[in-house]
Amino acid sequence: MARPDLATFLRDFMRPLVTGGEIHVRGPVTVADIDHWELDLAHVSTETVEIDEARERVLSTVVCRVPPFVLERDDLALTAGLHNALFLAHPDAEGVLSTERMRRKVIETTQALVAQPMTRNRTRVLARHALLHNVFDLSRTDVQLSWWTGRARFLGQAPPARLMRWRSMRRVREEVSRAAFDELLGAPDVAPIVAVLLRRSPLTQLCVTHAVAPALHWEDAVFVLRDAELARFVAYAAVAPTDSVEPRDQVATPSRLAAAFEQMLERNPPAEDVRAVAAFLVHLNALFVLGERGARDPGGRSALIASVLAPERAGQRARGLSTFFALPNALTVADPRLAVPPGILDDPALARRWNGHRAQVAEAVGEAVIETLAARLARHLSGAPRDPVDVVTLPADA
């Protein structure tokens, strides 16, 4: 098979991956192709500049000043890995990969492509997010055609014009369906590839999600929370309004982040990482309080909490939901300094609303859940440093 052309790959796959639009999936890309493409980058400046400018536009809503960056080898490798994953997920791939050995070889190559080194470099984190921010929006439009003498199915491509002619006479029927992310990239041999890929872009995992998205590992992403500008973007993305009017959809992302925090507590993370994630989730609780500041009854019960934590729906709660809302309550025991965001109690209206949330959560989830969570937190925070006010003392007057 001839080596794919870099300019074509950039134009037909990488650029629409960033900007949105129709992407074209061809034969699998190899590691050797990436080696050659890295040498050819200097000869496709028109395409690379277009992609970098598109990534800058994506990041203009993330940070105030987008750092300068250029298309690099790891960008090519990660994108080629996603391309190969989509190739493997296509039913027609079975015709190209005639044996199981060939398919395993493509899978191994794809795993090598996506297994790029992890990075905490701010510029690279932003560049990778701009490259992959649309991954959960990937979809394929399939068309099922039937006519008086036969039928045909076209996956991800338009039917030939000749089959659409004389629709009434030939009794042509057209059925259009859409294969979303879970169908495209949720197959057993493809899902692990996507999981490795997304771990290379922690900002994407924090800000963008899907019902079947790979699990978040907070150890990979907690450093993002120590960047105030990125943490602010993640927080606003987590509580951003959705198209759905269902209350459970409004708390889907915070629940997912809290579920990952539950898994983090089962491991042995550094105490400072536990504090960072806990403080961030408490901040998200505060954002929901701020969102209800204009309620008609400032001291009334929260309609959101009443809906998502309703006792009759206890068995239907999303994983992490109870932990998310119970965390501030549990921290009053485990580490009171993290239990309330700074300044929230300085405003009487916010303080009343905050305390109302805490009382309502305690009633909905029960003291047993709060006490269990507090005990789990205490195991990680028992060695917490003392408050500087308690440590530093002024000499007594003589």
Give the topology string: H per helix, E per strand.
Answer: HHHHHHHEEEHHHHHHHHHHHHHH
Treating each run of at least 4 consecutive H or I residues as one helix, how many helices? 21
Structural class, by secondary structure, is: mainly alpha
**End-to-end gap:** 89 Å
Shape: globular
Rg over C-alpha atoms, rounded to the nearest angstrom: 25 Å
Low-confidence stretches: 388-395
Instruction: Give the proportion of residues in helices.
Output: 55-70%
Quickly count the domains.
3
**Percent of residues in β-strands:** 5-15%
Strand order of the largest sheet: 2-1-3
- Count every beta strand, where a strand is a DSSP E run of 2 or more residues: 3
What would the average pLDDT be, to the nearest integer? Answer: 89
The main β sheet shows up as: 3 strands, antiparallel
Outline the structure in words:
There is one protein chain. By secondary structure, the chain is mainly alpha-helical. The protein folds into three domains: 131 residues, no CATH class; 40 residues, no CATH class; 174 residues, no CATH class. Helices cover 56% and strands 5% of the residues. The protein has a three-stranded antiparallel β-sheet with strand order 2-1-3. The protein is globular, with a radius of gyration of 25 Å.
Label this structure with key terms.
398 residues, mainly alpha, 3 domains, 21 helices, 3 strands
Topology:
Layout (H helix, E strand, L loop, with lengths): L5 H14 L11 H10 L4 H15 L13 H17 L3 H4 L3 H15 L7 H11 L7 E8 L2 E6 L17 E7 L1 H5 L5 H9 L2 H6 L10 H4 L6 H11 L8 H4 L1 H15 L4 H21 L11 H6 L12 H14 L1 H4 L8 H18 L1 H15 L6 H4 L7
Antiparallel strand pairs: 1-2, 1-3
Helix pairs in contact: 1-3, 2-4, 3-7, 4-6, 6-9, 14-15, 14-17, 15-17, 17-19, 17-20
